[in-house]
Design goal:
Length: about 400
């Protein structure tokens, strides 16, 4: 009996020794191969990325990818976004975890999904020899594998949200122009070359505009810029959001912002694309302001048929407009600017009857956060009295009205 026990103890000891030696050897192998395995996995992803986007010249990884995905890579040709590659895994198939890289166009359309790792038995019904899935329909007897693929694609599409990367870049660019930005709105535009106008606010205070413009004046295809402008249309700077122009680097910093450089020999078309885009944006804001003046005149003078501009030497007066119904003078609209409020320059359009009686004064531009004490929803002042704690804002408005009256001799 003792002999048998001793025998079993020896066998157990030998097995323990073998297991210990094997575990040690595996640890050593892992130590020397883990970096190579990691490199191979990344190399495989890079090859897949190039298969998705053959014209890719560079790519970058999106910081803080949303839950449910491992990473999101943005592929570019020059400054042009070609699409996204979303790395993710799920456990919805027959054989456990499946890892994929999903290629998507900028609008979220599927290019292909490549299965990088899996233990599925029936996956060959849906993928080609290289492991690429292009949208094959579900096959009987392999529905779970199909579900794993389609769920991965849907998850990837939700992660980029049909171009959320582009919108994130747009918002980040606006924030770089306007550090105090809390929100922005979008105004559709029918002006040639103007994609959209984005008024940027801090609360209800207009900080300026971002104008997205596109033209084909560069060396290759379209160039899209996001131009930053102050509320009065003064240019700040511009960022190239996308372009296939390979000469733009003469004028851009590392993040694609225009660096202010003058035209360079051999790259004048690229310079023209940038500067024309900036001028187009400025013209759009001036047109927007002109439209606001037109709407204000129509509100103050409902019977207006025309108006004309008259010169004025009055200090602080930008424009003096005489408003008519046919040949009958209805009154005046005087655009006045001063710096008497809380936050720098304020511009108002003051409406006056022919005898100088105030119709209303509309604030066109101001960063004064105390103006709400005196203005209605249309930003019109109708004669409110001074409020404690906001007297400087009141002074700016009433001084502008006095200036306007002086300009028309009333």
């Amino acid at each position: 009996m003792r002999t048998k026990v001793k025998y079993y103890v020896q066998i157990a000891g030998a097995l323990l020794l073998v297991c210990t030696l094997v575990a040690g050897m595996l640890a050593v192998v892992n130590h020397f191969t883990k970096d190579r395995i990691f490199e191979n996995a990344n190399a495989e992803k890079l090859r897949t990325l190039r298969a998705f986007f053959p014209e890719m010249t560079t790519f970058e990884e999106q910081s803080s990818p949303p839950a449910g995905v491992d990473s999101i890579l943005l592929a570019y040709e020059g400054q042009t976004l070609l699409g996204y590659a979303v790395s993710l895994s799920n456990n919805l198939g027959w054989g456990g975890e499946m890892s994929l890289l999903v290629g998507l166009e900028p609008d979220g359309t599927l290019i292909a999904a490549r299965v990088l790792r899996h233990s599925e038995t029936f996956l060959d019904r849906y993928v080609d020899e290289e492991g690429y899935y292009h949208g094959a329909d579900r096959s009987a007897g392999a529905s779970l594998s199909h579900q794993a693929l389609t769920t991965a694609v849907a998850t990837a599409q939700a992660a980029i949200d049909g171009g959320a990367g582009e919108e994130a870049k747009l918002e980040q660019t606006l924030a770089s122009y306007f550090s105090r930005m809390t929100r922005f709105e979008e105004i559709a535009s029918e002006l040639p070359g103007v994609e959209r106008i984005l008024p940027v606010y801090r609360g209800d205070v207009l900080l300026g505009y971002g104008v997205e413009v596109t033209n084909s004046l560069g060396w290759r295809g379209e160039t899209t810029l996001l131009v930053g402008l102050e509320p009065d249309g003064t240019l700040m700077t511009a960022r190239v959001m996308s372009s296939g122009d390979t000469y733009l680097h003469h004028y851009l910093d590392e993040e694609g912002y225009y660096n202010g450089a003058e035209a360079q020999a051999g790259a004048t078309k690229s310079y023209t694309a940038i500067t024309t885009g900036m001028q187009t944006a400025r013209d759009a804001i001036l047109a927007l302001r002109a439209a606001e003046v037109q709407r204000t005149l129509e509100t103050y003078f409902p019977e207006m048929t025309t108006f004309e501009e008259q010169s004025s030497e009055e200090e602080g007066v930008d424009r003096l407009l005489l408003v008519y119904a046919d040949d009958v003078l209805l009154g005046y609209a005087v655009e006045v600017t001063n710096n008497l409020g809380w936050s720098g320059r304020m511009s108002l359009l003051v409406g006056l009857e022919t005898d100088g009686t105030l119709i209303a004064a509309r604030v066109l531009l101001s960063a004064d956060t105390y103006l709400h004490h005196y203005l209605d929803e249309e930003r019109d002042y109708h004669g409110a009295e001074a409020q404690a704690g906001a007297t400087k804002s009141y002074t700016a408005i009433t001084t502008a009205i006095a200036t306007a009256r002086s300009a028309v001799g009333k």
